[in-house]
Amino acid sequence: MSMSDPVSDYLTRLRNAIKAEKKSVDVPYSNFKAAISEILKKSSFIEDYKVIESEDKFKHLSIKLRYNDGESVILGLKRISKPGIRKYVSNEDLPRVRNGMGIAIVSTSKGLMTDKEARNLKVGGEVVCEVW
């Protein structure tokens, strides 16, 4: 089965695991998903993640979710740039998520980063998703 949007699948798996109050979730591995996981870890939205290789040579990411008093730290996830409609912005037009309480993950020429980092480096790019 081919998947047309692996990033949406990644976000949906996180969203479903949070609603089911799971401690961790496994998603298929890709470098892009690992970079998103690293940003979520740096921004304290998840506890940790690790790459696990199974016997059949397929890798997957095991993501440990973060909870605060039984409530998930991630309140919402939204895919912005979709395969059919890409959303590119300049550094002046980078979105502010929940008035700075959330992050937008931006794919720039200097790699994947948060909207705050992109604003500081004065680079624009494709807005992948928002997390709050």
Helix-strand layout with pairing:
Elements: H1 6-19, E1 24-28, H2 31-42, E2 46-53, E3 59-65, E4 67-68, E5 71-72, E6 77-79, E7 88-89, E8 103-108, E9 111-114, H3 115-121, E10 125-131
Antiparallel strand pairs: 1-3, 2-3, 4-5, 6-10, 7-10, 8-9, 8-10
Task: State the gist of this model.
The protein has 132 residues and is an alpha+beta fold. It is 25% helix and 35% strand.
Question: Any descriptors?
Answer:
132 residues; 3 helices; Ribosomal Protein S8, Chain: A, domain 1; alpha+beta; Dna Ligase, domain 1; 25% helix; three-stranded antiparallel sheet; five-stranded antiparallel sheet
Order of helical and strand elements: HEHEEEEEEEEHE
Low-confidence stretches: none
Name of the level-1 CATH class of the largest domain: Alpha Beta
End-to-end C-alpha gap: 31 Å
Q: What features would you describe in this structure?
A:
The chain is of the alpha+beta class. It folds into 2 domains: 67 residues, Ribosomal Protein S8, Chain: A, domain 1; 55 residues, Dna Ligase, domain 1 (2-Layer Sandwich), CATH 3.30.1490.10. Helices cover 25% and strands 35% of the residues. It contains 3 helices and 10 strands. Strands 6, 7, 8, 9 and 10 form a 5-stranded antiparallel β-sheet that branches. A hairpin with a 2-residue loop joins strand 4 and strand 5. The radius of gyration is 15 Å and the shape is globular.
